[in-house]
Write a structure and sequence with these properties.
heterodimer; A: 266 residues; alpha+beta; five-stranded antiparallel sheet; 11 strands; globular; B: 173 residues; Ubiquitin-like (UB roll); DNA polymerase, domain 1; 2 domains; five-stranded mixed sheet; 14% strand
């Protein structure tokens, strides 16, 4: 790991003010520390956002939406009574990913921000356009069993590894973000971007912005939903392919359906 | 230009300094000063000499470094010690009183749930977390919820037997 300074903040505004230059936010740290140990992420400063109350908690909003705080852990989200009863698809997706210890650490905002697990992205001895723009893609003609089926470009075929995000995409979630200018919302489908010719940029967050929460609009899919994940071993592995699907039934008829598909490029 | 003008301009980033940290480990308060990049695992092993917690992969995959922080099982290799300032931590050294064994420790012996023993502290801390979470009802659940701990010797069947015996016995304080 490179040398860095560390600071805890307690207000969102403080976090945004501190996010200058080569600074990274840390919440669960499960992916960031991993990347720092491999010298892929080399921040000069870490801002710990775990103690910001505005980012905590799971709230049922008046109009029926559910807001998942950015720093709520994946485990607390998946086992939360409101999520289990009203968003079981989210619970199922989260519980199919990582391991119990990691889910006790990893947070909702961090899940969206995690980087790909492409072998070449992690292997600094090989070229990778996402890690080092312009160096080439080693996966394109290499070992690509875990790589993208949809959305790949000639520059990058890495996928976003999240299960949670597949469910959020199916449920038309909205990412709530804040910057020095104020607040804005990003529809989930627009949050992660396809690699095109800039695979080093994973998402549409602007510099200095922070994810404050994820809002899932009201739906009636809680009775008929499923998350199917195919992987090389039965647990604690990233998906080879995954599908989140949810139906609203009117008697024997599907009146509405939603799908999210994993193994898409970012 | 005076040479001192350069000196004034040089510091473009703040240098890290040791940070004061205090946490309770196995019911005892520890206070120390550590650089921000020291992981909780390294703090336990290298600075506090609590070497029961093992370093396996150091990348969050093997579970040998599992400890219980604020009643939750986590991987101590993927968290910084400074991030756990004020926490209550239990390591394998503190799961039972010195003269006794934790029921899971006894069960691991009774069920021959280890060979080399390197993963065992992490397995036991993880199993304590699993029982506290109370989400495992069946043998299949236990297997799934112990997926974060690898045993390269292949004692997994006996590990699950040991955990099941304590779970069904209900004695896991």
């Amino acid at each position: 790991m490179n040398n860095f300074t560390y600071r805890q903040v307690t207000m969102v505004e403080e976090a945004i003010d501190e996010k200058t230059g080569n600074t990274a936010f840390v919440a669960g740290g499960t992916n960031l520390l991993d990347l720092m140990k491999e010298n892929i992420a080399k921040p000069d400063r870490l801002i710990d956002i775990n103690h910001i109350h505005q980012l905590a908690g799971i709230v049922e909003l008046e109009e029926g939406s559910i807001r998942l705080g950015a720093t709520v852990t994946n485990a607390d989200t998946a086992w939360h009574p409101v999520i289990e009863s009203r968003l079981p698809l989210v619970s199922k997706a989260i519980l199919s990913g990582a391991s119990p210890q990691l889910r006790n650490m990893a947070t909702n905002g961090g899940n969206l921000m995690q980087r790909t697990r492409c072998y070449n992205f992690y292997d600094k001895a090989t070229p990778c356009n996402k890690r080092e723009p312009g160096s080439g893609c080693s996966a394109l003609y290499g070992y690509s069993r875990i790589h993208a089926i949809l959305g790949a470009s000639e520059h990058c075929i890495a996928t976003h590894p999240s299960d949670f995000c597949v469910a959020l995409a199916a449920l038309d979630a909205v990412v709530e973000v804040k910057g020095s200018y104020g607040e804005r919302e990003i529809p989930f489908e627009d949050f992660h971007r396809l690699p095109e010719d800039k695979p080093e940029i994973d998402n549409t967050l602007r510099p200095g912005e922070i994810i404050t929460g994820i809002r899932v609009p009201p739906n009636s899919f809680c009775k008929h939903c499923s998350y199917l994940k195919i992987r090389d071993r039965t647990s604690f592995a990233f998906a080879l392919v995954s599908v989140a699907t949810a139906f609203e039934m009117d008697g024997e008829t599907i009146s509405e359906s939603k799908d999210g598909i994993g193994r898409r490029c970012t | 230009m005076d040479i001192m003008d350069h000196v004034k301009e040089t510091p473009t980033r703040t240098l890290a300094e040791p940070m004061p940290i205090s946490f309770t480990i196995n019911r005892k308060l520890y206070q120390l000063r550590l650089m921000p990049w020291v992981t909780l695992l390294d703090a336990l092993r290298e600075y506090l000499h609590l070497t029961g917690t093992k370093k396996g992969c150091d990348l969050g995959q093997c579970g040998a470094c599992t400890v219980i922080v604020n009643n939750k099982r986590i991987k101590s290799c993927l968290t910084l010690a400074v991030m756990r300032n004020g926490a209550e931590i239990t390591t394998i050294e503190g799961v039972a009183e010195v003269s006794d064994l934790h029921p899971l420790q006894q069960a691991f012996i009774d069920h021959d749930a280890f060979q080399c023993g390197y993963c065992t502290p992490g397995q036991i801390c993880s199993a304590i977390g699993l029982l506290n979470e109370a989400k495992a009802n069946t043998r299949e659940d236990v297997k799934e919820l112990m997926s974060g701990n690898l045993c390269r010797c292949g004692a997994n069947t006996n590990i699950v037997d040991a955990i099941m015996s304590v779970k069904d016995g209900g004695d896991h304080e």
